[in-house]
Design brief:
Strand content: 35-45%
Oligomer: single chain
Number of strands: 38
């Protein structure tokens, strides 16, 4: 502890009433894959070791088309392998006994990498050959060997009364999610799931109104972490189908969150599938008229090295050291702190309201002679903020509530800061000096604030990073 005039003790509070002037930015960049064909549709990507599997209604050859009995174009399953980091090889057709006359796909692949669940028509007999017959879709299970699907079996809940399709299986194979317009739903189609119990699928369960809406909810994708992505045309979207996500917390699904642009657009955006770390993945969209598959990657900046926020302190300890020399004579020590406040004592503490220059003065009175010496000591005290970017926020908040973050107290003299970049520790980001954020999942989140200037004459820009953790609690 430094002796003399001032010793730092502890700090003050947080800003309140922050004006929200944030600029929301997307954590994603997207690019259209090279194997998409003009005039045809490519949908429902599934990530595999070699690349991706997907569905397409493209011609099987330059002259051979594949259509249903009522002249609808039929979808087949294809696999496309990566040629290099930016390009793809020509897709290969995955054949099955249904390839000639019926749809195959959308699909998903089980944890063993061989079991395929795919969507196809239920009725394949004579009735299906009538143009007036309305077929329904169901889920089928098959084994993948090379470029062939074998041993096709129907899902036990397929029905000629409604549609079931677009399957997605959990990483442990325990839960099968799908879309269906079966009775008991809330809208045009809903997200449902079954649980594997002793090798049998349980009765379908609707995810309920927390996930499903009165509109169309489809194309579920359950990730290894348990996050659910799906598409919906519910009110509040950007247009057509939009991609949403929901987290399963404490036995309930959280309110769906719509993904930002450019994942979503004014067109239909659907069949979103990420890699396990959520850093990249694929989805389909008809933003260029036909359905095409796009690759996305995150543009989130997360610094490996970032200073931890130090709290600004305006509290000091003041000591009259020379008083020890006059222990036999009683003295009165009166401090004037330069902000209109005073205190009495050889050792006193005082907290200033804000940074600034303060003239600290000490008056000493001899209690025997009543002789008073004004300004026995005086010193100009400079109270400063620590030179750092600064994050002002609460330390605790409830899941789902809005948290305000401010960089107003940033103290970097000589810096002409042009960008305030916030990383909220959950793969979301924002720009702005004052921003607002809500967390859906309880936990501890480490926020990074990265400030930067324009490049100088040498072409270099100045940049600094500060971090702070906050705790998000469950709602009571």
């Amino acid at each position: 502890m430094k002796r003399g005039f001032a010793i730092l003790i502890f700090i003050c509070g947080f800003l309140s009433g922050i004006d929200i002037i944030a600029q929301e930015i997307s954590p994603y960049s997207v690019s259209r894959l090279s194997f998409n064909l003009s005039g045809f549709s490519e949908i429902s990507p599934v990530i595999v070791k070699e690349g991706i599997m997907f569905c397409s209604d493209r011609r099987l050859s330059g002259v051979t088309d594949r259509t249903s009995f009522d002249d609808r174009r039929l979808y087949s399953i294809y696999i496309a392998e990566k040629k290099d980091t930016t390009d793809w090889r020509r897709p290969n057709l995955i054949k099955s006994e249904r390839s000639a006359q019926f749809n195959t796909g959308p699909l998903c692949i089980g944890p063993d990498g061989k079991t395929v669940y795919f969507t196809s028509e239920i009725e394949t007999g004579v009735a299906s050959r009538s143009r007036k017959f309305r077929n329904h879709s169901g889920i089928f299970k098959a084994e993948l060997s090379g470029l062939q699907l074998f041993s096709i079996e129907p899902f036990k809940y397929n029905s000629i009364q409604f549609n079931i399709g677009q399957p997605s299986i959990s990483s442990d194979g325990r839960y099968l999610y799908f879309a269906s317009d079966m009775p008991g739903g809330l809208g045009g189609s809903d997200i449902w799931f079954c649980e594997s119990v002793n090798g049998e699928w349980s009765t379908p369960v609707n995810l309920g109104s927390q996930v499903n809406s009165s509109g169309t909810d489809n194309y579920p994708c359950i990730t290894t972490s348990g996050k659910l992505y799906f598409s919906s045309n519910r009110p509040g979207g950007m247009g057509g189908l939009d991609v949403y996500s929901s987290d399963y917390i404490d036995g309930a699904w959280g309110s769906p969150v719509r993904l930002p642009e450019p994942i979503n657009s004014r067109s239909d955006d659907f069949s979103f599938v990420p890699v396990p770390d959520l850093q990249k993945g694929f989805f389909a969209s008809n933003r260029r008229r036909n359905d095409d598959i796009y690759e996305f990657s995150t543009t989130v900046i997360r610094k490996a090295s970032c200073d931890t926020l130090e709290i600004n302190n305006y509290c000091y300890e003041f000591v009259e050291e020379n008083a020890l020399k006059y222990e036999t004579i009683p003295f009165k020590f009166e401090w004037r702190f330069g902000d209109g406040k005073t205190a009495t004592g050889r050792i006193v503490e005082h907290c200033y309201d804000k940074p600034g220059k303060y003239l600290v003065q000490l008056d000493v009175t001899n209690l025997v002679t009543n002789e008073k010496k004004l300004n026995e000591k005086s010193q100009m005290l400079l109270v400063e903020d620590i030179e750092q970017p600064y994050i002002s926020s609460v330390n605790y908040a409830e899941a789902g509530s809005a948290v305000k973050f401010s960089a107003d107290s940033t103290n970097l003299p000589g810096w002409d800061i042009t960008q305030y970049y916030w990383n909220f520790g959950d793969q979301t980001i924002s720009l702005g000096k004052n921003v607002e954020k809500s967390y859906n999942r309880p936990g501890i989140y480490n926020i990074q604030l990265i400030v930067s200037t324009k490049p100088g004459q040498d072409g270099m820009k100045r940049e600094a990073c500060i971090s702070k953790s906050i705790i998000i609690k469950r709602k009571p």
